[in-house]
């Protein structure tokens, strides 16, 4: 069975009818995504995504936590990367983190105002990070709520963009990834994602 299919043994429109060969049905996209509330630096995934700034030389928020947990070698490697443009992504090792790699992406600065350009740039952060996952043959990745902290992107539209972009990408690249984790840190994001994930990734 190719990895993107599963067999539903129960009878039904997608399952095996009496006397028929079992039908391969597309895997549920909801099987590939998780919501986790807490510190991204403890996750044992192939890559965690860092909401970095364009210098890649450290900042506050999740970036500060990731550098602290990964140790000084992460800073040294970031120093060789020559920064990163908004919407783009670059990959480094994970050093002392349980994650093997860190994907550094730079979200748009919104400060409460979101125009078309900011929305597109935020979507590109997710797309370009996922492209690196695929390029490096990684199977699992965790995202923080990019741009919604210091960069001031409103939480709700940011979550919509994260979920919509990931859904579109996973649909197109269903063989390329086993798990995409949305790592929220705040109660408000947890509530937003919990409600939206069941809509973007229905379980049946
Ligand atoms: P940005 O500059 O892109 O807005 P921030 O780091 O300020 O990035 O915030 C992005 C999100 O990361 C916010 O929701 C913030 O609460 C969250 N965050 C902060 N620390 C952590 C952490 N250790 N693990 C996961 N998420 C975190």
UniProtKB/TrEMBL annotation:
<feature type="domain" description="Macro">
    <location>
        <begin position="20"/>
        <end position="201"/>
    </location>
</feature>
<feature type="region of interest" description="Disordered">
    <location>
        <begin position="1"/>
        <end position="23"/>
    </location>
</feature>
<feature type="compositionally biased region" description="Basic and acidic residues">
    <location>
        <begin position="5"/>
        <end position="16"/>
    </location>
</feature>
<comment type="similarity">
    <text>Belongs to the MacroD-type family. MacroD1/2-like subfamily.</text>
</comment>
<protein>
    <submittedName>
        <fullName>Mono-ADP ribosylhydrolase 2</fullName>
    </submittedName>
</protein>
